[in-house]
Specification:
The chain is an alpha+beta fold. Helix content is about 40%, strand content about 15%. It is built from two helices and three strands. The protein has a three-stranded mixed beta sheet with strand order 1-3-2, with helices on one face.
Length: about 70
């Protein structure tokens, strides 16, 4: 549930991570739900925010990109 603590954490996170409030709210909600990954094509792939790692599902894997 959305409460004042979640909103406050998102405001602080948005400033710290330099993302929008709405993106920070997603990260904070994921952390609150004890998720370690957040699937998003809008945030930077591999970025770790408060223990939550962003995964872009449309990013080519290292093997597909020809690198290892």
């Amino acid at each position: 549930p959305l409460d004042s603590k979640l909103v406050e954490a998102a405001i602080v996170g948005a400033a710290a991570w330099r993302v929008s409030y709405w993106d920070a709210l997603l990260v904070v909600a994921a952390r609150t739900a004890r998720a370690d990954r957040l699937i998003s094509e809008d945030l930077q792939h591999g970025q770790v925010m408060d223990g939550v790692t962003v995964v872009n599902p449309f990013r080519a894997t290292d093997t597909e990109a020809g690198t290892r």
